[in-house]
Write a sequence for this structure.
């Protein structure tokens, strides 16, 4: 079974703080993703990475950065947290299945971030 | 027009009934389609994937795909109260998965 873990389930930070959200997967997946989920807006892609040290902007990258130094780990960084970044943050990964690239994404448990 | 559209619900069905969840998408080039289940406060869990026109069955779940009509559906047979959740439709477009906002399903005992 694919296992995706995230560093915290709940996090409370103050406005202006630098925030690190960590995600680790144990399936040797090439692709990793960061989403945020807000009521009425659904899942929105922030950043994704298809290889170590590679990153691509998603639909809402403003205010965020990412780091992928190792294949299994993908970090989301909020450089200066703001109240509008209060949200549920979800990490996902996908890789190969049966020797072919699979588009199935598997999610971690999520981090509920509150910025006050 | 949203890329992936779902009725937000709630869809209420009695225990034992068939629940039918629907999804339409706008990108005709999409080739991969997924259904996720999300319980309140939890992360999405992949329950079905479908790539070809027609039906795909897995236990009590059946996914249906009609690419000509740009329509995907999920049928849940013998619905149980434990099926009460939000069901997200996801469609793979260019480089990324696009999610609908989900349909909330309520199964009453």
């Amino acid at each position: 079974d694919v296992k995706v873990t995230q560093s915290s389930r709940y996090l409370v930070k103050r406005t202006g703080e630098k925030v690190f959200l960590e995600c680790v997967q144990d399936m040797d997946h090439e692709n990793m993703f960061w989403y945020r989920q807000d009521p009425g807006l659904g899942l929105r892609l922030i950043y994704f990475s298809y290889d170590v040290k590679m990153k691509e902007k998603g639909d809402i990258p403003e205010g965020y950065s990412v780091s992928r130094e190792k294949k299994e780990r993908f970090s989301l960084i909020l450089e200066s947290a703001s109240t509008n970044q209060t949200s549920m943050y979800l990490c996902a990964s996908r890789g190969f299945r049966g020797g072919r690239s699979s588009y199935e994404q598997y999610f971690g448990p999520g981090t509920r971030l509150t910025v006050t | 027009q949203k890329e992936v559209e779902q009725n937000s619900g709630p869809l209420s069905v009695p225990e034992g009934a068939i629940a039918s969840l629907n999804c339409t998408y706008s990108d005709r080039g999409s080739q991969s389609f997924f259904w996720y289940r999300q319980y309140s406060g939890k992360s999405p869990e992949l329950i079905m994937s479908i790539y070809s026109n027609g039906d795909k069955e897995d236990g009590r779940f059946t996914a249906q795909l009609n690419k000509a009509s740009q329509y995907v559906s999920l049928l849940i047979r013998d619905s149980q109260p434990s099926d009460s959740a939000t069901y997200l439709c996801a469609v793979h477009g260019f480089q990324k998965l696009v999610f609908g906002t989900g349909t909330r399903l309520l199964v009453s005992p």
